[in-house]
Amino acid sequence: MRAIKNKEKIIIYGDADFDGTAAVVILKEAIEKLKGDISAIYFVDREEEGYGLNKKALNFLKPLAPALLICLDLGITNFKETKIAKKLGFEVIIIDHHKIIDRLPEASIIVDPKQRGDKYPFKEFATVGLVYELVKIIFGKDLTKDLNNSFLELVALATIADMMPQERENKQYIEQGLTVFKKTKRLGLEFLLKTKDFEDLTENEKIQKIVSTLNMSEIKNHLTEAYLLFICQNKKEVRELIDRLLERSLQRHGQIREITEEIKERIKEDSSLIVFEGDLGWPNLLVGSVASRICHKFKKPTFVYKKGESESIGSVRMPKGMDAVKAMQSCQKLLITFGGHPPAAGFRIKNQNLEKFKNCLIKYFETLDE
To answer: For residue 69, what are the domain limits?
Structure first.
């Protein structure tokens, strides 16, 4: 509120998945309503930059300093990068729902219900839920019904997309948000629901199709296509966006099936405690979906990565009761960055450490079996 009042530059920096995108849209629209100065919206490109706040992005944003840098759905494990941001002249706010690793970054304000000392009883918000609660506090009684509804539908969709437990506050968001969503006034969502792809689908199937279509949208000029769809007011542009998104979604689901089958073939004789597979040709955008399918099929801790020239970026999925973050924490000296939730997380690693990381993980899971 101080930044808005003083006309300071504000940068909103978000993760590119559905939760991060929806959180950015809500906060952007809220700040604009309050006449704040948004100097940049920036979504991290996992393909090029990996996860979270990173040096490449900070160098790109450096000309805008001094500014308030608000990190959404990321940042809670970016200790070095937060320090760099401060040195560049950014004041940092982190709003994240991922698991805390040992300590907190040196940000001015951190909102994460999982941090030590947080007394709020419910801990399983998606980031979009935290941002929605923030917006309600900022507006108070001035939050109009229309604006609240336009936020709630995104909160509901993103909470479902991020597979958060549908209980307590999340249950309320979903029930209220999906009621509003049926009469959505967002042009992108309205037009998407009217396409042939959504004919003859049940309400639940429509939600799942929207999530799967928009969760894998591409990034152009540091903006996700899902973000552009949510905010676009031009009918022609919306139709073009939807055509691209649906076509690409179809292609990607085909790629996911191919990669999944390739991994199944690779590991059919493998009796290892974990699945640990990567390839130069696998898009980083798809490895999370592949890891989910493999983990569901084989009931093993699953690590799937896109191999780069010198570094690899991977996604992790865990069977029920296992903790991806704890597993990687036991091998953190080998990793550049890592973080996420117990059932689903991500990592970045130098290629020279891949085999060591695999062996370290196997040792960790062997101790769990003892």
So the answer is: 2-139
